[in-house]
Design a protein that fits this description.
Length: 486
């Protein structure tokens, strides 16, 4: 914009702002009609609100309501009376006192949905959280000696037994586990990794960035689609590697003309050159998913078995527990990680540990496919999912909402959350068609319900995938459908 035009534009802005905020003579009387904060606070309606909420929050909101009333008067509207202002304050208090983080219904068919909180916890994990949440706990106390212990003691033995590792350490999430391991083992040294494994997970976890932040130098070898053991060998000779890193491509798949180095080959090279080897598995499966129609997902036990020095994986992906990152491997390295000051900054809290311990007990002593929601959603027979879809479609149609039609449609679920990329699980959805509402409108109305319900849209049809919905949640979905227009 030329300078003079810009000046005119600014003048116009100033002028219109003055008009908006300078009361004109006519609405001066309107301003005078507005009750004062004191008058309002003494009124019955506002007194009731004060009794229910705190005085401070009510008075703050009375002030806000008066300020916005003054703005509308300045725009030429008339003054609201005390009752109208009390209504506004009451509605606003109703809104701000609502919990923002609430339960939601996942009808997307994506079992581990990061936006919807990843793994749903087992009953045992929920009971374990409940048991330690309200009071004190044995978090860092050794009950035999009464002395200070380590919070890690609650889970180390379980992880060691389940994975075959010598030792284990739990931190806040897997990104933290990778950061801690790299910073402990490879700080100021080179980390050798295949170009095909330089992953980004969910936007904010980019392996090259984590390597840099850990104080290590990245040495990429091979190409995006093919890497050979000789590539690692050459890199090891030409640099001073502190670590050979493998990262499981957990959220994408490279197909076609590809070649990859097996963990066994990498471990053999590592031991020949005395360089530690680490495997970032990400998804952290402890059980084989092949019997449930999925492709083989490398398990933690297999990685440990191959002889790697450390494995890192998430607690809230396929493992189905709370948000944690687990490091498992040789004591020599785990102990070093434990005494790194970063470990303190990345430590887990008691609720997280309680849920993790309870979940690990299910793997050791219980039936994971029956009791861990992530695994039971994968293992749920298609007939059961289909029966639930027909029941819901029937119940929605029996509401006889003019213009709304529900029917069962085949769909595909996926595990999601950075696990088993490109693999789908056959599922069944309830498709909704409305004469008056588009698929997007339906999506919005279901989302804005209490509890929010998340479906998905495929080819202009709104779908509620039943693989990720429990039978107890059908009532909420029917409740939403009942008040839909056709
Ligand atoms: C998911 C994932 C991570 C990050 O784990 P968070 O628990 O989300 O922090 C790191 N590496 C791989 C390979 C992953 O799949």
């Amino acid at each position: 914009m030329p300078a003079d035009l810009y000046a005119v534009y600014r003048q116009l802005l100033v002028f219109s702002a003055q008009r908006a905020y300078n009361p004109t003579v006519e609405n001066n009387t309107e301003f005078r009609k507005l009750p004062s904060v004191d008058e309002l606070v003494r009124s019955g309606r506002i007194k009731e609100l004060i009794a229910e909420h705190s005085r401070k929050v009510v008075v703050d909101n009375v002030r806000k309501a008066l300020a916005s009333a003054r703005e509308s008067i300045a725009r030429g509207e008339s003054a609201p009376d005390a009752d109208a202002i009390a209504d506004i304050v009451g509605r606003e208090l109703g809104r701000i006192t609502q919990m923002s983080l609430t339960r939601a219904i996942n009808a997307t068919g994506i079992i581990i949905h990061t936006g919807l909180g990843r793994a749903a916890l087992s009953d045992a994990a929920r009971r374990a959280i409940e048991a330690v949440a309200g009071g004190h706990s044995t978090l860092e106390i050794d009950i035999k000696t009464g002395k200070r212990g380590s919070r890690q003691d609650h889970i180390t033995e379980l992880i060691v037994e389940l994975t075959g590792a010598e030792n284990a350490l739990v931190v806040n999430n897997n990104a933290a586990a990778v950061l801690l391991a790299l910073n402990t083992i490879a700080r100021d040294m080179d980390v050798v990794i295949s170009r095909g494994q330089l992953v980004e997970i969910g936007g904010s976890f980019r392996l090259p960035d984590i390597i840099a932040r850990a104080g290590a130098r990245l040495i990429e070898v091979g190409t995006t689609n093919r890497t050979r053991i000789s590539d690692y060998q050459q890199a090891a000779w030409q640099n001073e590697p502190g670590l050979l890193l493998r990262c499981h491509p957990s959220n994408f798949k490279i197909t076609g003309f590809t070649q990859d180095v097996s963990l066994d080959e990498l471990v053999a090279l590592g031991s020949q050159l005395h360089i530690p080897v680490m495997d970032d598995l990400g998804s952290g499966a402890l059980v084989d998913l092949v019997p449930y129609g999925l492709e083989h997902e490398p398990t933690v036990q297999e990685s440990i078995e191959s002889g790697v020095d450390m494995v890192t994986f998430s607690g809230d992906k396929l493992l189905g527990a709370s948000q944690t990152g687990i490091l498992a491997g040789k004591s020599e390295f785990i102990d070093q990680c434990r005494s790194n000051p970063l470990a303190r900054a990345l430590r887990v809290d008691k609720l997280t540990l309680a849920a993790l311990e309870a979940t690990l007990h299910i793997y050791r002593e219980g039936d994971p496919f029956a009791d861990i929601p992530v695994l039971s959603a994968i293992a749920r027979p298609l007939e059961e999912v289909a029966a639930q879809a027909s029941k819901l479609a029937r119940r929605i149609n029996s509401l006889k909402i003019d213009g709304l039609n529900a029917y069962v449609a085949p769909s595909t679920s996926e595990t999601g959350g950075g696990s088993l990329p490109g693999q789908s699980i056959e599922s069944r959805s309830v498709a909704l068609k409305s004469r008056g509402l588009s698929a997007e409108d339906l999506g919005r109305r279901f989302r804005e319900w209490n509890p929010p319900i998340f479906g998905r849209i495929t080819r202009d049809t709104y779908l509620l995938d039943m693989r990720t919905v429990n039978p107890q949640e059908l009532g909420d979905i029917i409740g939403r459908a009942r008040s839909l227009p056709g």
